[in-house]
Design goal:
alpha+beta, three-stranded antiparallel sheet, rod-shaped, three-stranded mixed sheet, about 230 residues, 5 helices, single chain, Nucleotide Exchange Factor Grpe, Chain A, domain 2, 3 domains
């Protein structure tokens, strides 16, 4: 094979021209010939050119764009899984938001009910006192005053019904053990027949709404000497 003395610039220009002229044949084969060049600094270079004597086959798959169906499916599944997780997260956040709003609404309504009940209770107390006083007064039990008293009783009953519809209920007292979370002891009574700390009288009725106390019951509690001696 004949050696030629060329410069580096000439060598690279010739190399580029030969690369542009290089093409693939239909059989996916390229025939190449190896030539030797000597540069100005006496460095030997080998360059390949098309030739009938040397053949190098290039697989068709290396030319075409490689796509793996299983890899593509895995990527799509991963994307769908991420989107599904994101959707589930948003749905949970929305559900938690709705629950929080509903809980806040219930608490707000409960506080409004308690506030309204506290405003109504003095009116209920006064009507109850008027009814008890009228029942003890012979004059007010007369025929002339009976219709007036019946009207007061009717109004009192309607107020109790309104409180019940609001969920407000009276706190049990008589015969119940004293509970400081429900009752307020304003008086004591020596009573040997009643168990110690049992409520024997209700001085002012208390009310509650669910677990919330609107007003504690004011009560009289029994004490006995037998318990004191122990």
């Amino acid at each position: 094979m004949e050696k030629k003395d060329i410069t580096l610039d000439e060598f690279f220009r010739e190399l580029e021209e030969r690369e542009r002229s290089l093409s693939l044949v239909e059989s996916n084969s390229v025939e190449i010939e190896v030539e030797s060049y000597k540069t100005e600094d006496n460095t030997s270079l080998l360059v390949t050119t098309p030739s009938e004597e040397a053949t190098y086959k290039i697989p068709q798959k290396s030319i075409e764009k490689s796509t793996d169906p299983s890899l593509e499916i895995s990527l799509q599944r991963a994307m769908l899984e991420r989107e599904r997780e994101e959707l589930d997260r948003w749905q949970k956040e929305i559900e938690n938001y709705r629950k929080r709003i509903e809980q806040e609404r219930i608490e707000t309504m409960g506080n409004l009910m308690i506030d309204l009940a506290r405003r109504l209770l003095p009116l209920v107390d006064n009507l109850e006192r008027a009814i008890e006083s009228a029942k003890r007064n012979p004059v007010l039990r007369s025929v002339e005053c009976k219709s007036f008293l019946d009207g007061i009783i009717l109004v009192s009953q309607q107020l109790y019904e309104i409180l019940a519809e609001m969920g407000v209920e009276p706190i049990p007292t008589l015969g119940m053990p004293f509970d400081p979370s429900l009752h307020e002891a304003v008086d004591v009574e020596k009573n040997s027949s009643a168990p110690q700390n049992t409520i024997v009288a209700e001085l002012l009725r208390g009310y509650r709404l669910g677990n919330k106390i609107i007003r504690h019951s004011m009560v009289k509690v029994a004490v006995n000497d037998s318990h004191k001696n122990h």
